[in-house]
Amino acid sequence: MKKWKLIIKERQIHFPTLSIPLIKFKITLPISFNLKSPTITGLNLGKRSKSVVASALIVSSLVVGGAIYFSIEGLDQVPVYPEPAVYDAGASQARDLKTIGEGQRNSQPTQTLFLEVGGARIQDIIFTDVNVGADSPSFTDAISISSTGSGSIVCEKLEIIDVESPTFKLGTSTIYSLSVGTTTADGVSINGTLSNDPVDYRFGSTRGALNIPAVSGVDVDRIIIQNSGTATTTIGTIRFERVSAFNTGINLANLTCSSVVIKGTDTDRSIFGDGTGIDNASFRIGSTDGSVGTVKVSSIPSINNIVERNVSVK
What's the sign of the alpha-carbon dihedral 203, 253, 285, 219? Predict the structure, then answer.
């Protein structure tokens, strides 16, 4: 569904209410009508007068209709989620909206789905059966979740299920429970730092939480979920399921999660690889050299059925 927005000097225009008095009239039948086409001195159309008048009416209707059509075409079509655009969840919630509001066109001509979540309380953010990636322009990441300020993204669950991507990085985060299973990768590096800092979060009531519709069956250049500023964003579940990326990979950071689960329903359904070989890991969680960032974990209940082999997702 398309929404239309007409702004006149950034002011709301209210039209006056017009009331038409009731007019009573009486008609006595029969009535004899004798209509004649107007005559112009010196011009005699003869029997063709009716066809000429009809043609003039048709042409006039086409001109008016064309003017209305092209006027409508000139209006800006407001993006509706999940059309590629920039959406502000925090602003939507500040306006007491129940669901994500309208978007703004990307400043650059790209098919980027950009979700600014700064300070919002969101039920779920879910992507299923989505294709992500672009040949040109080339982006740093196909999927990105991060905080650009001192704020953070707190979620109860982060789920990566049956995902294909050249690379996967999870860095600088705090996770209460981390599980990785049934995955194939062109090299795996998991460096979780055991810590007492992680907290087992629960989202609680959905009352007042913003509803963001689940996204399914779309193709975009990239997906960005970003928390700007100093506010904390709270999310129930973030899930990427049956999502395929190419050219660039997945980069997640600045997350505080109760549970992170990365798995496939089969080893051929959860695949990460850029073809550089298993000695140069394509799947990375945390790092000891600071290249990805420190990932604090309270427990790692399972890391199993991980297959390392030369594989490249194109």
Answer: positive
- Sequence-distant (≥ 6) Cβ neighbours of residue 69 within 8 angstroms: none
Query: For the chain, how far is it from start to end, CA to CA, in angstroms?
Result: 34
> What's the pLDDT tens digit per position in 127-154?
999 999 998 777 999 999 999 888 899 9
* Residue carrying structure tokens 């702004």: 7
Tokens at 205, concatenated: 């009531």
Please, what is the average pLDDT of the chain? 85
What percent of the chain is predicted at pLDDT more than 90?
68
pTM to 2 decimals?
0.76
Task: State CA 160 to chain mean position distance.
Answer: 18
> Which stretch of DSSP H or E encloses residue 296?
strand 295-308
For the chain, which residues make up each domain, given as ranges? 42-75, 80-308
* Side chain identity, residue 191: N
Question: Hunting for tokens 């990805």 — which residue is that?
Answer: 292
Rounded to whole angstroms, how far apart are CA atoms 140 and 168? Answer: 12
Q: Do 184 and 268 contact (CB within 8 A), yes or no? A: yes
pLDDT tens figures, 193-206: 999 999 999 999 99
CA distances to 15, 103, 249, 254, 273 from 164, rounded to whole Å, are: 54, 28, 9, 22, 8
**Maximum CA pair distance of the chain?**
102
DSSP 247: S
Show Cβ contacts of residue 186 under 8 Å, excluding neighbours closer than 6 positions.
272, 273, 274, 275, 276, 277, 278, 280, 281, 282, 283, 308, 309, 310, 311, 312
pLDDT in tens, 76-97: 689 999 999 999 999 999 999 9
Q: Which residues sit opposite 245 in a β-bridge?
A: 132
